[in-house]
Design a protein that fits this description.
Elements (H helix, E strand, L loop, with lengths): L18 H10 L3 E6 L5 E6 L2 E7 L8 E4 L2 H8 L4 E3 L8 E4 L7 H17 L3 H8 L7 E2 L2 E2 L4
Antiparallel strand pairs: 1-2, 2-3, 3-4, 4-6, 5-6, 7-8
Length: 150
């Protein structure tokens, strides 16, 4: 993430993205670790500081189906789109599964994944966020005041 909060890795604005492009996008986000979990899970997980934000199924019949956490505003919208459904076991936590990533515009999918990444990053301490991304994290505010300062 650069100083403006945007990422150096991007997905094309109008075109769809393929599985390899999306894997590169996820892996290119600051501080991300990718790991493959074998049977019985059979998934390729993308996480920041141990917090998963996206994963691909790696076994048949669901090979390369992509799942990520959606914002409350997007969850219902996404699950109304053919080929996108609540993720198995995680749907109640607003995770969705995209059957074919080429069915969504690349820029839109990039925004959705970026939200999931930022959500996972936000669950970490500010010190850990800086250590993983190298970007200073602004202080949290409440009611317009910086917490912890008179």
């Amino acid at each position: 993430m650069n100083q403006t909060g945007s990422h150096a890795v991007t997905i094309g604005a109008d075109s769809a993205v393929d599985t390899e492009g999306l894997k590169a996008f996820c892996a290119g986000l600051p501080g991300v670790e990718a790991r493959r979990l074998d049977a019985p899970a059979n998934i390729l997980v993308y996480a920041i500081g141990g917090k998963t934000f996206a994963y691909f199924k790696t076994s048949e019949p669901e090979r390369w189906r992509f799942s990520f956490k959606a914002s409350p505003e997007h969850f219902l919208e996404l699950t109304d789109i053919p080929g996108i459904r609540p993720a198995r076991w995680l749907g109640r936590h607003r995770w969705v599964t995209v059957v074919d990533v080429r069915s969504l515009p690349g820029a839109y999918l990039g925004e959705l994944v970026d939200w999931s990444y930022r959500h996972a990053l936000g669950t970490l301490s500010r010190t850990r966020q800086v250590a993983l991304t190298g970007v200073p994290v602004p202080p949290r505010t409440r009611g317009g005041r910086v917490r912890g300062r008179g």
